Amino acid sequence: VSAAMDTESTYSGYSHYSGHSKKAHRQGRDRHKSPRSKDGSRSEKSVTIQTPPAEPLLGNDASRAEEGQDDNWGETTTAITGTSEHSISQEDIARISKDLEDSVGLDCKRYLGLTVAAVLGLLVFLTPIAFILLPQILWRDDLEPCGTVCEGLFISVAFKLLILLIGTWALFFRQPKADLPRVFVFRALLLVLIFLFVFSYWLFYGVRILDSKDTNYQGIVQYAVSLVDALLFIHYLAIVLLELRQLQPMFTVKVVRSTDGESRYYSLGHLSIQRAALVVLENYYRDFTVYNPALLTASKSRAAKHMAGLKVYNVDGNNASGQSRAMIAAAARRRDSSHNELYYEEADHERRVRKRRARLVVAVEEAFTHIKRLQAEEQQKAPGEMMDPREAAQAIFPSMARALQKYLRTTRQQQYHSMESILQHLSFCITNNKLPWAFLERYLNPGPTLQYDRDRWFSKQWTLVSEEAVTSGLQDGIVFVLKCLDFSLVVNVKKIPFIKLSEEFIDPKSHKFVLRLQSETSV
Description:
By secondary structure, this protein is of the alpha+beta class. Among the domains are: 104-244, no CATH class; 251-290 and 458-495. The chain is 57% helix and 7% strand. It is built from 13 helices and 7 strands. It has helices at 8-32, 57-67, 73-76, 90-138, 148-171, 185-210, 217-244, 273-287, 297-308, 320-378, 389-410, 419-431, 436-444, and strands spanning 47-50, 251-257, 263-268, 311-314, 463-466, 479-483, 488-495. α4 (90-138) packs parallel to α6 (185-210), α4 (90-138) runs antiparallel to α7 and α6 packs antiparallel against α7. It is extended, with a radius of gyration of 38 Å. Belongs to the Vang family. Residues 1-86 are annotated as: Disordered. This is VANG1 protein. The chain crosses the membrane at residues 111-133, 153-172, 184-204, 224-244.
């Protein structure tokens, strides 16, 4: 206290605060005294129970202050937290360790699958070459001479192996788009089929050719050619199972975001649940608008304010169920009048957004007009004195920064657009000679998630929740959920109905008619 009383104003403020606190203490003590009547009997006791707010105490204060805040709230607001930014709890440690274990497991599974596929592919391509070279190495002198047909088979094997190599590279050796929780069933079946196929060929080759040292070299080469032909057919089977089978639409899925109810419809073919979830997420990043949790704070604060104003008076005793029923009834009575408040709040917000939008459009148009004047002046200067687009963007940005900042705060998009990203977009528009509306398109309407930086995404790691096995195929009525940290996507699968079309023949003569004219008419 002595350190705080350096000046007279500070001391007077401290004395005023002490007097105020003592007065409040006396009032609280008098209020908690048991009131008695004149005859000494105790009067009836009334207890006021206020429901706990739906949000923390700091959140309620923020929601109450949100109504009267001005447009410069981001510059004059100070947030006070109770924990350090470097603090960590036991739950955080457990979660981090679990994430590390999961990431290590996913990496091991990914590299193990790639290693097995690479080893098997190398074995497949070396097997026909080994079939042809082993007799030349082991019993070269006993082999029959290779004629013209045998030498032509060498060319056939070489080109077929080249085609198989290119097709395998195009189909299998692609960068994975995601880490799936389970293996891809058809891919695993194809790997098993190829292994059994090559193993059976090696077994037959070892028993019938290596042990007996067959001297018919043309027959050995034809045996290797048959192996390459069979591998080409297996590659065709892989194309059908992995690529062509899923192209025909068979199901319609409805994807709903749990927070704001935004929904989309997609058509899918024969896919497993995990691969359908992957397709849904790819389309989500492209089609859904970016998730903005700031848009949900207004409704939450309004609901918390309504519930915090309800009071329940309990005279008989402490009955929790009776208090809950009284709260529900009071909330139902207040619901009839709350729609007016919601209507005026939304109308006022729309008015403010239109006003900020108009100011922003005017500011941007003036800035781009200034750019045109600068470009006309730059053409008259020497080539070394001309400004690059980055310098031009930095020159005109201050004239529109204020209006853009206010508009982004009003629409609650300020967390998605940094000053550096706005300058880059402005310089890009100047470079490509875009008009003001092309520059404003990114800020007037919220875009999809892919439009923003990865650091500002609220959904990076997803969890698939399904009652059915994730490797099973899609069926009518299946529902699965994709969860991330802040929200989830609920996917409902419906089968496309069987459509029956019938043909109805229309006789061309039925369209003809005869106009009969009477003699007494004027026609």
